[in-house]
Amino acid sequence: MTYPLIVVPFVVVTVLVTLATRRRPRFRERMVASGWAAGGLLILTAIFDNLMIAADLFAYPPEHLSGLRIGLAPIEDFSYPLCAAFLIPAVFELLSPRLPQEAS
């Protein structure tokens, strides 16, 4: 079960960095947009990973997998697009300069 263990640090970093932006403006909107992006990326991953595995472009040693699959694609493959959909916007938000709040 090597691949599930490789995924854990990516998921932990994604959660921590995303939570670090929760007090930034428009957090909720960013989470909704990340959710939509994640959904699209997961669909594309399901389609193309299954096609590439079916075409024998690559294979995974079963002893290194959790055993859970979506079609031919191991569930571990879906963690990277999911993390990217949330981590990239969160990092961008943290690296963007904070603008002073306008007086009401």
Architecture overview:
This protein is mainly alpha-helical and 104 residues long. The protein has one domain (2-94). The protein has three helices and two strands. The chain has helices at residues 2-20, 27-54, 79-95; strands at 69-70, 73-74. A two-stranded antiparallel ribbon has the order 1-2. A hairpin with a 2-residue loop joins strand 1 and strand 2 (73-74). Helix 1 runs parallel beside helix 3 (79-95) and helix 2 (27-54) packs antiparallel against helix 3. The chain is elongated, with a radius of gyration of 17 Å. The model has no long low-confidence stretch (mean pLDDT 91).
Termini Cα gap: 55 Å
Indicate the mean pLDDT.
91
Low-pLDDT parts are none
- Rg, alpha carbons: 17 Å
Q: Residue share in helices?
A: 55-70%
Q: Using DSSP, what is the number of strands?
A: 2
| Domains, number | 1
- Give the overall form: elongated
**Beta-strand content estimate:** under 5%
The number of helices is 3
Q: Give, in order, the helices and strands.
A: HHEEH
Which structural class best describes the helix and strand composition? Answer: mainly alpha
- What's the arrangement of strands in the largest beta sheet? 1-2
The profile of the biggest β sheet is: 2 strands, antiparallel
GO molecular function, one term: lycopene beta cyclase activity
GO biological process, one term: carotenoid biosynthetic process
Pathway: Carotenoid biosynthesis
Transmembrane segments: 6-23, 35-58
